[in-house]
């Protein structure tokens, strides 16, 4: 049983292809760079904006189709799935 539980846990913690977790010193460095960039942007009058993590899918569909076309021209590969079904 323990092996089955570990397998399920690892599936839940799996990071989708094309993205990765950043932690440790790499995360610290990324946050330093981000903070420096925010300071420069603020000095020019820009302010932060936080957008929702989730949006309606149709908002992004047109742009994703354009990106897919550009990716094909550039020879880049990616796959987008939603609920186990291939979207792009």
Q: Indicate the low-confidence ranges by residue numbers.
A: none
State the share of residues found in helices, binned by percent: 55-70%
Tell me the strand percentage band. Answer: under 5%
Main structural class: mainly alpha
Biggest sheet, spatial arrangement of strands: 1-2
Give Rg in angstroms.
Answer: 19 Å
| Tally of alpha and pi helices | 3
Mean pLDDT, as a whole number?
77
- Morphology call: extended
Distance between the termini: 37 Å
Total strand segments: 2
Largest sheet: 2 strands, antiparallel
**SSE order in H/E notation?**
HHHEE
Notes on the structure:
The chain has 3 helices and 2 strands, in the order αααββ. With 88 residues, the protein is mainly alpha-helical. Strands 1-2 form a two-stranded antiparallel sheet. The radius of gyration is 19 Å and the shape is extended.
């Amino acid at each position: 049983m323990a092996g089955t539980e570990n397998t399920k846990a690892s599936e839940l913690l799996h990071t989708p292809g094309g993205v990765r977790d950043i932690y440790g010193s790499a995360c610290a460095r990324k946050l330093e760079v981000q903070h420096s960039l925010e300071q420069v942007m603020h000095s020019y009058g820009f302010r932060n904006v936080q957008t929702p993590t989730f949006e309606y899918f149709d908002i992004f569909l047109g742009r994703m189709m354009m990106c897919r076309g550009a990716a094909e021209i550039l020879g880049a590969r990616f796959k987008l799935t939603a609920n186990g079904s291939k979207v792009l």
